[in-house]
From TrEMBL:
Name of a matching Pfam family: S1
Sequence ranges assigned to domain S1 motif in this UniProt record: 6-74
Presence of the UniProt keyword Ribonucleoprotein in the record: yes
CDD domains documented for this protein: S1_RPS1_repeat_hs4
Family assignment from sequence similarity: Belongs to the bacterial ribosomal protein bS1 family.
Alphabetically ordered keywords of this record: Ribonucleoprotein, Ribosomal protein
Region annotation (Disordered) ranges: 103-127
Top-level taxon in the UniProt lineage: Bacteria
Name recorded for this polypeptide: S1 RNA-binding domain-containing protein
Length: 127
């Protein structure tokens, strides 16, 4: 079995971590599919894509400076026309923004005016 860059080989997933999946081949060598090489879309949870013990085809990207195999599943998948991106958080409503500005302005005036801040007291008495 040749494990040269560009080779497509089948291996078994021996361990899945938050950062990738370790693949073992018939010749005993092990390589890593980094989480960024799992799919074309953003991978939030790697366990949604691969399972330990599963056989899978991977493409050998090369070896790092320590001689470890860098692998990819993404390279064997058809690339979608447009890569979906994570949703952006929308802006707050204009009413909320106005209320927040007013609150911040009032809070700043209270703290910079030098007037003592009234403390809340309880009307209940201890018996």
């Amino acid at each position: 079995m040749q494990l040269e860059p560009g080779a497509v080989v089948e291996g078994r997933i021996t361990r899945v971590t938050d950062f990738g999946a370790f693949i073992q081949f018939d010749n005993g060598e092990t390589g890593l599919v980094h989480i960024s090489q799992i799919a074309h879309s953003f991978v939030r949870n790697i366990h949604d894509h691969v399972r330990e013990g599963e056989s899978i085809e991977v493409k050998v990207l090369g070896r790092d400076e320590r001689g470890r195999l860098d692998l990819s599943i993404k390279e064997l998948l058809e690339e979608p026309e447009e890569v979906p991106r994570p949703r952006a958080i929308g802006r707050q409503s204009p009413q909320f923004e106005a209320k927040l500005r007013s609150f911040m302005r009032d809070a700043k005036e209270r703290t910079t005016s030098g007037a003592p801040v009234k403390k809340s007291t309880s009307t209940k008495r201890k018996k």
